[in-house]
Amino acid sequence: MLKEERQKYILDQVHLHHRVLLNDLADSLNVSIDTVRRDVKELAKEKKLKKVHGGATSFGFMNFSKDDGNIYLQSKKIQIAEKTVSLLSEGQVILMSGGTTNMEVAKMIPRKLPLTVFTPSLHVAMQLLDLPEVEVIFLGGKLLHEAKFAVGGTVVNALNQLRVDLCILGTGYLDAEAGLTEFDWEVIQVKRAMIRAAKKTIILSVSDKLHSVQKFQTCDLTAVHALVTELDPQDPLLDAFRPYDLRLV
What we know:
Blueprint: H1 3-17, E1 19-21, H2 22-29, H3 33-45, E2 50-52, E3 55-57, H4 59-62, H5 74-85, E4 93-96, H6 100-108, E5 115-119, H7 122-128, E6 134-138, E7 142-143, E8 150-151, H8 153-159, E9 164-170, E10 173-175, E11 179-182, H9 185-196, E12 198-204, E13 216-219, E14 226-228, E15 247-248
Helix pairs in contact: 1-3, 2-3, 5-6, 6-7
């Protein structure tokens, strides 16, 4: 594979998953980790991504802006947000994780819809503050520098005291057999606690993330009540998810 092709793949993965590991990129590209490290350094020098310890992140992952028109796959995420907002109802108490798709949901919630929203995402909390009828409760803890997402025992303990109507989870990696997976163990602990704290859980995922797997499992699909994508629910790309007792939206 040519260097240009490798670097395009790396950028696509960074934009899709927001953060990637050098080891995973090397395995996927079937090249040495030194080759990937050099590619990432070049891309970082060109300010196309940010190099972090053991991997890389997208700039959009770290610095959301309310009117950012450069969100990767934004049109798909807007479609998902429209579907998700249609599932909300007056007076609900919900949990929201972070990520660009959940940010689109937060932007699209009607200004007159009264909700109570708990979130460990500083980005999502700040966006929700624009909505006068939404009571925003930030679940504080140790903030991850890149994601602006709170993790740790303080967050998990707070979540253990909740029983909310709905949990809306953004997706890192999603596969029918492996379920929802991530590589950040601290984030997984918070997301697991969010699922336990909710009567129902819905997962938001662009179709580009389907059939992708990471090292650690957040949950399997038995814990999920609905999967929201930009696809038509009858799309063949969703066939692997049909045997499970979850609603495809």
